[in-house]
Amino acid sequence: MLFASVGYQVMFYDIMPEQVKTALTNTEQELENLEAKGLLRGKLNAVQQFDCLTGTSDLKTLAKGAMFIQECIPERLDMKQSFYKQLDEIVEANTIISSSTSTFLPSLFAKDLKHKENVLVCHPVNPPYYVPLVEIVPSPWTKADVITKARALMDEIGQKPVTLTREIEGFALNRIQYAIINEAWRLIEAGILNVKDMDSVMSDGLGMRYAFLGPFETCHLNAEGITNYLERYSKTIHSVSETMGPPPVMGESSTAMEVAKQLDDLVPLDKLPERRLYRDNCLMQLSILKASMNEKK
């Protein structure tokens, strides 16, 4: 939908024709719903955006004339390697091939390709319609102009790209996210907090702050600039960090069972769809607020 919102011709692909048909039907309904709520992105109306969409189950049809392909297949390396090998045989020389992966380094599925210089990761954050960040991650062979073009495209469709200078495990977002999860887990494992209060630390504390400002600007504003902040707090940050311990092995530990029990009490499994809808509605309203606030800067 994001590419269609600015008028690009978009082709859905799946090996199963019924999946393509379902995707088109669901997208048409979603565009209509967004338009009815006044939340449709772009200058085109819902009908015009849907007219930009087609679908196919033929990979050659998908690849023909494509300027940019965004791969979103399941997070299995063997499947990605197989798909990229097939695509590599038929794709045109200047087509950018981008993966949505949040897990795999692009070199892992690009290394044996003829067109490996055109492959990179553009990792969106779910749900991308309301959470605009896209991590652009090159492989060691990705051409500089491919990175530039991919970032320009993400800007054009209204996303907020960040470009990593090289590939690294977890990219940026998940490295930070995992650091948070690890320390949250350690605090629960040590009996310092329960799950509900731990989540409140983020949702009612850090999360509210970081929804508008990143960690470095937050530090900058919490003192008389970052230099003053480091003078005041850097030793404390270091000493506290030394107490955090190694990354926990979560798995089937007793802590895992206790976390699952507490979460099941807070959000029973049959309530997950309802809670996801709440999450998406909150993100939708937050995106509206951020857009409004940024206009006033």
UniProtKB/TrEMBL annotation:
User: Where does the source fall among the domains of life?
Assistant: Eukaryota
> A single GO BP annotation from the record?
fatty acid metabolic process
Q: Which residues form a coiled coil?
A: none
User: Would the keyword Oxidoreductase be found if you checked this record's keyword annotation?
Assistant: yes
**Residue ranges annotated for the 3-hydroxyacyl-CoA dehydrogenase NAD binding domain, each copy included:** 2-164
The family database entries (InterPro entries) matched by this protein are listed as: 3-OHacyl-CoA_DH_CS, 3-OHacyl-CoA_DH_NAD-bd, 3HC_DH_C, 6-PGluconate_DH-like_C_sf, 6PGD_dom2, NAD(P)-bd_dom_sf
Q: Which family does it belong to?
A: Belongs to the 3-hydroxyacyl-CoA dehydrogenase family.
Know the name of this protein? 3-hydroxyacyl-CoA dehydrogenase NAD binding domain-containing protein
From which organism does this entry originate? Glossina brevipalpis
Q: What is the lineage of its organism?
A: Eukaryota, Metazoa, Ecdysozoa, Arthropoda, Hexapoda
